[in-house]
Specification:
The protein has 187 residues and is α+β, with helices and mostly antiparallel strands. Helices cover 19% and strands 36% of the residues. The strands form three sheets. Strands 3, 4, 6, 9 and 10 form a five-stranded antiparallel sheet that branches. The longest helix is centred in the C-terminal third of the chain and has 36 residues. The radius of gyration is 37 Å and the shape is flat.
Length: 187
């Protein structure tokens, strides 16, 4: 059992229990009735236009905005660039009933949401204290590692001067000093 409906300029093939995202639609008490029904199918292999009154009813599950789409306008050689973003608003609708020609197909009821287990104050306090102890241990280990690194560096690296090891000072401009030897022939 399915129906083809038109909503927000687009067409959707829906069955009872399906969740579709349509452009934001006004909902009364969380229910939406789609009036523009293009085709219905009551059994496998048969499809046709509804004769008489047909209804597709859904309940709004959530309202939101889709991912951002970047719109970039560009004209070459004219130094023209324009960048804009757009997020389309949508409503997620769960199809609850499709009715036509005296037949009514309803979606199965969703199981009730289980209430979250209340956390005790003792559990929360233990987690906070445990996290604090772990953080302190991490800081202590980090300090010990830093001290060990300094000791290794101070042990035997370098010749003991203010200048970094292995580098000799250059001339005024920072390049290597040139020898005042014989110049080669010009080419």
């Amino acid at each position: 059992m399915y129906a083809v409906i038109r909503a927000g300029g687009k067409q959707y093939r829906v069955s009872p229990g399906d969740v579709i995202r349509v452009e934001t639609t006004p909902a009364e008490n969380g229910t939406v009735e789609f009036g523009d029904i293009l085709a219905v199918s009551g059994e496998a292999g048969k499809i046709g236009r509804p004769e008489g009154e047909a209804r597709v009813v859904g309940s709004v599950v959530e309202n939101g905005r889709a991912d951002k789409i970047l719109v970039f306008h560009y004209k070459r050689k004219k130094q023209y660039k324009k960048l804009r973003g757009h997020r389309q608003a949508y409503s997620a609708v769960r199809i609850t009933e499709i009715a036509f020609d005296g037949q009514s197909f309803k979606a199965p009821e969703l199981p009730a949401a289980k209430p979250k287990k209340a956390k005790s104050v003792a559990d929360t306090a233990a987690r906070i204290v445990g996290g604090a102890v772990g953080a302190v241990q991490g800081v202590v280990e980090g300090v010990q590692d830093a001290v060990a690194e300094r000791e290794v560096k101070a042990m035997g690296k370098g010749k003991g001067g203010s200048r970094p090891t292995g580098k000799k000072s250059a001339g005024k401009k920072g390049g290597p000093k040139k020898s005042a030897g014989k110049k080669g022939p010009k080419k």
